[in-house]
């Protein structure tokens, strides 16, 4: 890679920050209808930024919600095509009083950019734009082809993006998708998350008598919906933390020895986690380490339970109903539809006497994994290592980024999650910020990556 | 009994109703501080009513809360002394818009008196006053001695009455306590409830991490407080509905063959209960009938459970805490203090890994029973039978009336619960009412009772 590219980035840093601050000044809060004009303004700003660096066929595509910004540069004939996904929308800013400086007036303190969206995801999307500008300005061309797909609804669950992708398969056809919307493992420790868990959820509603009953007048003679719910909920795990739903683990891919080694080599320790969470001990499926439990094992968690009296003191009632909300995190090759069926069957086979039980389904998401020895992943790892001078960690994520699974499902492409945030940067919270060190190193890393990718794919 | 007494009641019915309506017009809502002047006015009204019929040493005794009205008539030398307990306070009236006529403007429709307090308990307390007036006016004397103890805090749990009773043991010394604050079994079917269950409750608070956690990022690696709570709650019963807390049944009195027969003879059927509650099947401790489960077996019911997300849809959270509220109904000779200890021990021995569990105690109440072959109970049964012309049912109550247990504990006296309401009369609800048939027959029954009691005790 040309040394001149780094120099270009260095010399233009002030201008780049100034331009980024303009982007950060637009309150593009996708969740709040009052801000839809601002969201549109951020889309237009993004499109202009793409046009300014030389992207072609730049367009703001309307959807049923907020628009998708598209732009491309396809002049690297015979070379791979990279689709860069990002988002120009941001989270709400409440509670505003906890911000040390206004969320939409970006502000540098202590070598960090403070603003809503600084890290998630305007900052990281902007880095992609400026890294490509640096290569183009310095070398006059690019080592690979690019397609930008920058949406405005990520913070509200990307309700319209899957349909947009489905309808524009040809427009978006590429060899690899690169997303910078995640974090390094820790300061100075690059990481590539190459797998995310899927999601599948149910709500269990247990109904008893027509109304709440006096526990003195009826207690002992009727089934208490809370007791019935507890019997059902308690049946999902055994004492070893193993999920006891029949067939639940049937399609789970076994963890490979390579992955076991890679996870064991990660610097994250149980002690760190205990301290961070204020716990005395961890708990999970027997026979697996904490990271294995988080990365490659499926889970079943009750996210909410409720029934009867919740106020101060006591009310001697047998409630007429009780409910629980449950979600499973799924791993390859579990199918959310199959798991949803197994969960429903499990519950229906365990309905206690004297109550009626209804099970309803929530949205589902497929698990995603790009094999960590995929050339696009390995090239990204080498790019990180050139800039950060330490080995890249290969992790999997416990959470779900539905759009990643959607890209995987619809386009069938490898996805590289190459993030530059830090876990401590208050995404979604007051005083969101982004470390300038990673703004600089990140753009350098991206530039290296495109040249590595040219050689790898 | 003198026929003239009945005639007196008949001839004065209009006046009695008019007087009762005056009593019912006072909004003596003990729960609402704004009404404390009205509560006091009801106390004074009660005291005046006692004076008017010839009670002596009538006094309105102040307490830390609302006052207690006392009055006595002790001229039946060598005869037993009856303490009549009742209350002049009433429940709040919300929601007011559901009342067909204003709650404090008593109104007769369909041979029922509609007003807050009509049945619970101004109407029934007033019947005692007028029954005694009838005997005194007709015969010039009374067959037994009387002490009235009419309080103003029953609807808020009688917080100050136990102390008043404790401090006035001599003043209140009697041979039997008679309370009319319950119901007939059904229209035309008199019943005496000779036992009530006690109460003992705990709250279980399970605490996990310092904050709610993202179920994707941490799910599988930490104990979920809801899971831990469910494990504990599920441990209280076995599949046969038997409570599995060690020692829980140790002091429970065995049911006698006489009682078994008496309960089996009651007209209440499981089918009625199923229809009333909108249930397809009942559920309870194996080996006992429904009435045995309600009257003489202890229970453990979860009255409330809560933790995590309760809104529409889904939130993938592992909550930092979850709680359950539990109460036990106790039967003779279970001691609420002993049971509370057993419950705490049961929970502490079952704390799952990775969480902290706190158990706190609620107010406790002793169970109460007056043997159903006690002469005061049997005399009451005969009095009912003379007026209602059907056999009296001997029942026990599943609920707890704390003041009954307190009288039992402090004064060591038999308590006769001789009610004239009907289970359908909307106590504590809009459109509370009282059947005039039972107003008439009830006073007649009481008059018979006092003459029966003279012969029995």
UniProtKB/TrEMBL annotation, chains A, B:
It comes from Robertmurraya mangrovi. It comes from the Bacteria. Residues 194-353 form the Peptidase M20 dimerisation domain. One of its GO terms (molecular function) is dipeptidase activity. PANTHER family: BETA-ALA-HIS DIPEPTIDASE (PTHR43270), SUCCINYL-DIAMINOPIMELATE DESUCCINYLASE (PTHR43270:SF12). It is an enzyme of class 3 (hydrolase). Keywords: Dipeptidase, Hydrolase, Metal-binding, Protease. Its EC number is 3.4.13.-. This is Dipeptidase.
